[in-house]
Amino acid sequence: MGEHVIKLPDVGEGVAEAELVEWHVKVGDLVREDTVLAAVMTDKATVEIPSPVDGEILWLGAEIGDTVAIGSPIVRLKVAGEGNVKNTSPGESGADGIPAGASHGDRLPPAQNAAPSSSGLSRGSAGSPELASHPRRSADPRDKPEDDGVKKDRAMPSLSGAPRAEGEKPLASPAVRLRAKDAGIDLRQVAGSGPAGRISHEDIDAFLARGPQVARATGLARKDGVEDIKVVGLRRKIAEKMSLAKSRIPHITYVEEIDVTALEELRATLNREKRADRPKLTLLPFLMRAMVKAIGEQPNLNALFDDDAGIIHQHEGIHIGIAAQTPNGLVVPVVKHAEARDLWDCAAEVNRLADAAKAGTASRDELSGSTITITSLGAMGGVATTPVINYPEVAIVGVNKMMVRPVWDGTQFIPRKMMNLSSSFDHRVIDGWDAAVFVQRIKALLETPALIFVD
Asked: From 389's CA, which of 14, 92, 321, 377 has a CA 20 to 30 Å away?
C-alpha cells in the first residue's frame, strides 16, 4: 500500500489561487477514479476537483472558505501500489510538507475535526487511523457534556412553557379561575405552589409580576439564539465586488419611464411567427440592440475605468453583462460582441448563458469581460431601483417591472404598458448630461421599436 497526494490543479489561465467552497468527501471515505472530491471557486466560476486514482481518504488539507494556492496539496489518499509519495518514517515531513501518515489534522472542517492530538492517534494493521484509548479532551466549551445545559434549563424554566404535562388540568379554586379569566391568563401556563400543584392567588400575582406580555402569551416564546454563518464562495465574491464598487464609484442614478406598448405588440407578433431557428423573444434582446445603437453614438459609455492608473479603457466591442440570479447567488454572464448579433442571436445567447449560470456550469470566460451591464428582476423589478455598477465598468442599465397605467394623450386617459429604466453611471467620468442623453436615446428606440432595425 502507498499514499497519493492530490494537489490543487491549474484551474484557469492566470489563476494563482482558488477558494475552497465545498468538500464532497471526508476522511475514511473510499473513492474511485473521477470521483469529485471538492469544489473551488475563482472569479465566480466553480470548478470541481476529481480524484485521479482509487483510494481511501486519509487527510484533507483545507477548510471551507480557505484560499488555496495552485499546486498546494489538498487531499492525501491510501492507494494500492506505491502511490506518488516516498516512504518516510513517522514524524518526518514528506516531499509535500505533509507529515508522513498524516490523518485527521487541524486544517479539516470543524464538523469533521473531531480527532485528538497526534499523541492520541495510532495506526491499525491496515494503516487506517484509530483513536487511542484515552484521547485528550478538547478545551472547546462545545465539547462539554450536555448535562450542563439540561441543568441550566431546569434551573431557569421558560416563562412561556407549560409547567405541567400535556393534557393535565390545572388545579385552582373557582375564585382563582375567575380572576385568571378576567385577566386573560391561561392557567396551564401558571406554576402552582400549593399541594399537587394547586394554583393560588399568590401564584397569579407572581405570574403577572413577570410582565403582562408574558402573562398573556399563549404559546409564544422569546428566541435569543444567534447563528454564525461564514461568508464563503460566491457570497464572499459578491460581497467583495459590491464593497469595491460602492466605496470607489460615486454613483449617479437616472430613472426614466418608457412606453413599451408598441414594443410589446411587436414582440408578441414576432413570437407568433414560430421558427425552429428563432428562440422566443423577451424584452432583453430589444434592449440590448437599443443599447448597441446608443453606444454607437456615445462610445464613452462602453468603457472600463482604471482609477488606480487614471486611464479609461474605451472598447470597440460591446460585451453586455446580464446580471442573473442563481440558487447560489448573483452572477453576471456576458454576451460577447453584441454589436455583431441580431435580435434572435442575442436572445439565443442570453438563454444559453442563463441556463449555464443556473446550472453552475458557466466557464470563467463566460462570466468575465463585460463592458456594460443590464440588471433586471423581471416581475419583481419594482417601480425604481438604484443599481450598483459592475466595477470597473462606468454604466449599468436597470429594468423595472412593466405595468399598465393610465396615460393622458391630450384628450383622454388611455391604458398603456409602462416601464421604468433605472440606470447608474460613474459620475467621475460620465456627466449627468451624457447619462440623460444615453437613456433618452434608448427610450426613443424602445418606444418606436422599428428604429432598432434601421441602420
From this structure: 14
